[in-house]
Amino acid sequence: MSELSELYQEVILDHNRKPRNFQKVAAANRTAEGFNPLCGDQITLYVRLEDGVIRDIGFQGSGCAISKASASLMTSAVKGKTKAEAEQLFEQFHRMVTKDDAPDAAELGKLAAFSGVREFPARVKCASLAWHTLHGALEGKDKPVTTE
Amino acid sequence: MRAVREAVSSRVSDRFDVEKVRRDFPILRQKVHGKPLVYLDNAATAQKPQAVIDALSRYYSEINSNIHRGIHTLSEEATRAYEEARVKVKNFVNAAEEREIVFVRGTTEAINLVAQSYGRAFVKPGDEIILSAMEHHSNIVPWQILGEQMGARLRVLPINDEGELLIDELEGMLTGKTKLIAVAHVSNALCSVNPIRRVVQIAHRRGVPVLVDGAQGVPHMKVDVRSLDCDFYAFSAHKMYGPTGVGILYGKSHWLEKMPPYQGGGSMIRLVTFEKTHYNILPYKFEAGTPDIAGGIGLGAAIDYLNGIDFDGAAAYEQELLAYGTEALSAIPGLRLVGTAKDKASVLSFVLEGVHPHDIGTILDREGVAIRAGHHCAMPLMQRFGVPATARASLAFYNTREELDALGRAIRKVKEVFH
User: Fold this and answer.
1) What are B48-62's pLDDT values in tens digits?
2) Which fold has domain B53-307?
3) Where are the domains of chain A?
């Protein structure tokens, strides 16, 4: 049960039940869609980017607890950050969920809750779908982002 | 639940010896995450009995060589073993002739073959293909591709909330433009058993041929293609306890004769010049290139195995398991079964309130229970039921009531994690 409770930490269950920023952003100037074609998880991300800073961000969609909580915690973490800061956070997050040499959890704050994903390789895509979608939105790609 | 268990066990114990059958499947002795493997993903692929594994190994260690061309001993033996498998398939589904059995890679390729060969020859702009709302992507997308190529359109026969075809609407959908009906024998996501004979009767009154996607039909029941009277029946070896990589297209010879080749290459020719090629006779006209010889022979071994265990008894046992599992899962608060047709094969597709099927799948896996979670390659069907995905426990005759109890316990664990 221990690896499972590492995966489904209380903060993840909480964000799954009550996702934050779970709405359209009216003044969004960047949107991107993300799909996980294997499982059908789907997310639409709305970003208001001004002077290189993420002023507002929200999401809609459907998916598992890991993907929904990841989107919720990601949107909370990157709000107010610059594009470069958000991309750096993505890199740290990605290393944490895929590699053993996890970066300092303190830098990741609440996102450190996803460190348990590492033990579940099949779920890495769930945790990173929102981040890939954010990357697509910030790059201004008009094609849907997929995890494949 | 115990009362159910006792009542059920007294009915089946003298008919079907599940413990004896389980010993034939070496993989079932495995542990996963320290727990005994409970394999409930049989609709994705079934496990293989030792006899099939041995047949593959024997082929490669004793008679490996190419077929239909060698004049040496090994080639003759390999050819004989491969063609014997075709006879076994023919008898297993009661086809009239061996030349009506075309070996392909899988159900998907069988359907693509019909779409491209029959479709390009007989479907014209404005024509219509009728599908059902419960089809697997492999019985949707090949027809969409054909539709784009030929300017034809797809029409969808609806289903009710239980997951049953609204068969009475079929008659009204048939027009002079209808060129084919393509329908699953058994739905992979809901496991509804469709009334194929009625579909065929209605279609044939208007001269419309019927293709049946039998991938989930053959593993669960004795299929008789002549009694169904369908024009095409597509199925896969790996879902009927045989190897991956081999599928079967049954087609009535009068259709196969009229259809052009699907792929060009070796084996499918009789005479080739740079000006013109004369095609081989059935079924070889549709079998270009070296096939999966070992897989075909392994399929033959799987059929021998099924014939040896009283397949009808196994099917009856599966139905009793299904009833037991349906009752056990229905007793779990917050669990909803998706697909509750009266006539159903042994699959339990379900959703759990507040928990996504993927999370169910991960937690069950840690309990040793293997299920599928997702859209089951049937996204339009998921939309029909208003769910993004389901969890699917699909049963085979080697599963037991104890394993379904383990499934129930594991689902309760999911609820604990997600309190």
Assistant:
1) 999 999 999 999 999
2) Aspartate Aminotransferase; domain 2 (3.40.640)
3) 2-146
Q: What is the pLDDT of residues B153-175, one digit of tens each?
A: 999 999 999 999 999 999 999 99
Of A8, A40, A68, Cβ closest to residue B417: A8
Assign B333 to helix, strand or coil: coil
pLDDT at A113 over 80: yes
The architecture in CATH of the region B2-32+310-417 reads Alpha-Beta Complex (3.90)
Helix (H, G, I), strand (E, B) or coil at B377: coil
From A75's Cα to the closest Cα of chain B, the distance in A is: 21
* A7 reaches B (C-beta below 8 A): yes
Check: CATH 1.20.1560.10 for A2-146? no
Alpha carbon distance A114, B4 (integer Å): 42
Do the domains at B2-32+310-417 and B53-307 have one common CATH topology?
no
Q: Catalytic residue at B230?
A: no
Contact B55, B297 (CB under 8 A): yes
Nearest to B358 among A4, A42, A64 (CB): A64
Catalytic residue among B377, B379, B382, B387: B377
The structural domains of chain B, with segments of one domain joined by +, span: 2-32+310-417, 53-307
- Would you say B277 and B264 are in contact if contact means Cβ atoms under 8 Å apart? yes
Average pLDDT, chain A: 90
ipTM of the complex: 0.90
Q: Which ranges constitute the DSSP H helices of B215-310? A: 225-228, 253-258, 293-308
- Which residue in A64, A114, A147 has the most chain B C-beta atoms within 10 A of its own C-beta, making it the best mutation to test that interface? A64
In angstroms, the first-to-last Cα distance of chain B is: 24
